[in-house]
Amino acid sequence: MEKRGNCEHLEYLKTILDSVADGVFTVDAEMRITTFNRAAEEITGYAASEAVGRRCSDIFRAGVCSSGCPLREAQETGEAVVNRELDITDKDNRRVPISISASVLRNAQGQAVGGVETFRDLSLINVLKREIKEKYSFRDLVSRNPVMRRLFDVLPDVAATEATVLLNGDSGTGKELFTRAVHDLSPRREGPLVVVNCGALPEPLLEAEIFGARKGAYTGSVENRPGRLEMARGGTLFLDEIGDLPLPLQVKLLRVLENKEYQPLGAKSPLKADVRFVAATHRDLEEMVAEGSFRRDLYFRINVVQLKIPPLRERPEDIPLLIDMALDRFNGRYAKKIRGFSSEALKVLLRYQYPGNVRELLNIVEQTVILCRNGEIGIDQLPPAVFLHNPGQEAEKPDNAAQPPQMSRETLADLLAHHNGNRTQMARELGVDRTTLWRWMKKNGIAV
């Protein structure tokens, strides 16, 4: 009777495990598989009858099986391994990306008798991530913000002309990336893209930097020096922070724009300028024109096509995309495998106002990737500045500005990919319960 009861109990346990969407298997002290649920069969391609009794390394054939096995790590340290991403090879020799969690398996007396591992197939999530990246990427720019998407839409038309472009936006919004996109899409793409920062040098040096100088033009000038206008011949000249250009140089630049001619310092005759101009500023040039610190005629010359880039605080829906992009970049640069930010840390980053815009966000991600010692960046690893600008935000619920503007299918799919399918983390980020999230997903035709 007792034996029958044990059999019924084991059958009931198997039914529970087979109902779980994630793959689940257990191993004994010798790393031989003792249980293997239905989801594990579907993900690996091996039937439970083929897997049970074999070493898990024979079934999963992952690079970490020989060194860095999560199950062995959990058994050796006594601490659980959570959501570690890796690739396995299934029965048909296909690569399958998975996210795994492993912990020690103990008997009733608390003795370690093996290990248990759960794993989730990330194939669909990775496909979603690729689709999202392709959908919201334009050259080296990423955004799902409607204003930014409209800018992406007009860039090819703007780039195809020779019109001077004025980029207006706060420092760190990506004006140089927009310039690179304009150049790469233009007929001048084979020529050079040359950058000059109009606020980086005093007036005499800046004049020589832009227009060039002939030998003997000034004290210390012992040879001919080409200017950026000459260096950019056949390509694009990017005048960054043009609002800082001194008035005397504004007059000279106006002549270049009007007549396509310029004269290097000390030169006896003018030269022809063969460049396309892109200018950028974070300042209000119309206000400067009214004050008399920027020439009205020059403003009209450079303002043929003006593209206003919104600051990051006005497009918080871009923050998860930018974080993913930055994590890919810095994981590769520093040989790390950081999965992402905890939901609490992500809430902080969503609410931060970013006075330094995208540049500041990238800097934050780089800092935290360098300092992070595990797979997830927590709230304690964020720099103090994100809290100083948002006092008391840990205890507050994110306001509507920090949430996606609408629960469209694309937004939900994006968040699903960002959280590797974890609905609990999605609901937490959105500030709703799982039932509400379930309704949204069902309404948008996303598998729940």
Which terms would index this structure?
alpha/beta; Helicase, Ruva Protein, domain 3; Rossmann fold; 3 domains; five-stranded antiparallel sheet; five-stranded parallel sheet
Determine the fraction of residues in helical runs and give it as a percent range. Answer: 40-55%
How many domains, as an integer?
3
Radius of gyration: 29 Å
CATH architecture term of the largest domain: 3-Layer(aba) Sandwich
- CATH structural fold name of the largest domain: Rossmann fold
Order of strands in the sheet with the most strands?
Answer: 2-1-5-4-3
CATH class placement of the largest domain: Alpha Beta
Say how many strands there are.
16
What fraction of the residues are assigned to beta strands by DSSP? 15-25%
Seen as an oligomer or otherwise, the chain set is: single chain
H/I helix tally: 20
Average pLDDT, all residues: 85
User: Looking at this structure, what is the CATH superfamily of the largest domain?
Assistant: P-loop containing nucleotide triphosphate hydrolases
Distance between the termini: 41 Å
Protein described:
By secondary structure, the chain is α/β, with parallel strands linked by helices. It has 3 domains: 2-121, PAS domain (Beta-Lactamase), CATH 3.30.450.20; 127-131 and 314-443, Helicase, Ruva Protein, domain 3, CATH 1.10.8; 146-309, P-loop containing nucleotide triphosphate hydrolases (Rossmann fold), CATH 3.40.50. It has helices at residues 2-19, 38-44, 48-51, 56-60, 70-77, 123-136, 146-159, 175-184, 203-211, 228-231, 247-259, 285-291, 296-302, 319-333, 343-351, 357-371, 385-388, 409-418, 423-430, 434-443; strands at residues 23-28, 33-36, 81-89, 95-106, 112-121, 137-138, 141-142, 165-168, 193-197, 236-240, 261-262, 271-272, 276-281, 305-308, 340-341, 376-377. Strands 2-1-5-4-3 form a 5-stranded antiparallel sheet. A 5-stranded parallel sheet has the order 9-10-13-8-14. Strand 4 and strand 5 form a beta hairpin. Helix 6 crosses helix 18 (409-418).
